[in-house]
From TrEMBL:
Residues annotated as domain Bacteriophage T4 Gp32 single-stranded DNA-binding: 5-193
Pfam families, per the entry: gp32 (PF08804)
Biased composition (Basic and acidic residues): 220-229
Source organism (scientific name): marine sediment metagenome
InterPro entries named among the record's database cross-references: NA-bd_OB-fold, Phage_T4_Gp32_ssDNA-bd, Phage_T4_Gp32_ssDNA-bd_sf
Protein name: Bacteriophage T4 Gp32 single-stranded DNA-binding domain-containing protein
Keyword Repressor part of the UniProt annotation: yes
Gene3D superfamilies attached to this UniProt entry: Replication Fork Single-Stranded Dna Binding Protein
Coiled coil: none
Region annotation Disordered: where it falls in the sequence: 220-283
Biased amino acid composition, Acidic residues: 250-259, 267-276
Keywords tagged on the record: DNA replication, Repressor, Viral DNA replication
């Protein structure tokens, strides 16, 4: 059981959603931030490859399953209690530290339920660092085996604390809030270049499926950049409804990150649900 407090970023964003592709390419894991994260109408070469493979043979469909787009949520999260902390070296302990918590849609549903349940929910107090805020109690159990013998993480027992409490004194809160990460900046830093995406797709030997298609898209993009249109000022975005870490500087190439099993992200780029179960089994 883990406990912590969700906190807003410097811009007031409570959490953000991003889409990505992650699959094993050779001996390494390829991580590609899906361009549809910024706008769904954006062209994504990996999404296009996936769509084409789904129309092919059973083997193609299996390959498409590994390439398909996935969603993840990220938020600033103050770690109140990580039961593994006593086993860590002092410099690696996380209790009392604001980390970036990346979580699946099942956890995001827990947040939405609290926000939208006007009668019984805590509303946006779940992000409040003051005495009116509520901690999140994360419990990751395992489901029963499905027909294929697979087990999956079960977050149904996760909940928010009934008792509200402050995460510290006013000065301590100010200090902690200054350590929160800009979520937009964090997600943007996950992006890789078009050249890198091309390299990965060539390694996977699927480049020819979308080469001409992508060339046309690139041509249109370059043409628009040469002749920019005058646009109306953008309106301030509402909070994204669509939330431990990468708050430390990470120089690892996100395309080549290996899949390291931890219940939440610390230095690896992503975790699949199955990895949470592996970690729980080893605890």
């Amino acid at each position: 059981m883990y406990e912590g407090r969700f906190l807003p970023d410097p811009k007031g964003n409570f959490y953000k959603k991003y889409s990505y592709h992650m699959f094993q390419s050779g001996e390494k894991w390829a991580f590609i931030l899906c361009p549809k994260t910024q706008a769904f109408e954006n062209y994504c070469p990996v999404c296009s490859v996936t769509s084409k493979l789904y129309q092919g043979s059973p083997a193609d469909k299996r390959m498409a399953g590994s390439y398909k787009r996935k969603d993840k949520f990220v938020s600033n999260f103050l770690v109140v209690n990580d039961p593994r902390d006593p086993e860590r070296d002092e410099e690696k302990r996380v209790n009392g530290v604001v980390k970036l918590y990346e979580f699946p849609g099942k956890v995001e549903m827990k947040l939405k339920e609290e926000i939208t349940d006007v009668k019984n929910g805590y509303g946006y107090k779940i992000f409040d660092p003051s005495e009116e805020g509520h901690n999140f109690i994360l419990k990751v159990l395992a489901t029963k085996k499905d027909q294929n013998g697979n087990v999956w993480p079960d977050y149904s027992s996760s909940t928010f604390s009934r008792n509200s409490n402050s995460i510290g004194t006013d000065s301590e809160i100010d200090a902690l809030m200054k350590t929160c990460t800009d979520l937009d900046e964090y997600i943007n830093n996950l992006a890789v270049s078009e050249e890198r995406m091309e390299e990965v797709l060539k390694t996977e030997m699927v480049w020819d499926m979308i080469a001409s298609e992508w060339a046309k898209v690139r041509g249109l993009t370059e043409e628009k950049e040469e002749k920019p249109e005058i646009q109306a000022p953008a309106l301030q975005e509402d909070i994204d409804d669509s939330v431990w870490d990468k708050s430390d500087t990470d120089t690892t190439d996100p395309v080549e990150s290996e899949d390291d099993s931890k219940p939440w992200v610390e230095d690896d780029k992503d975790l699949e649900d199955e990895d949470l179960l592996k970690e729980l089994a080893s605890m």
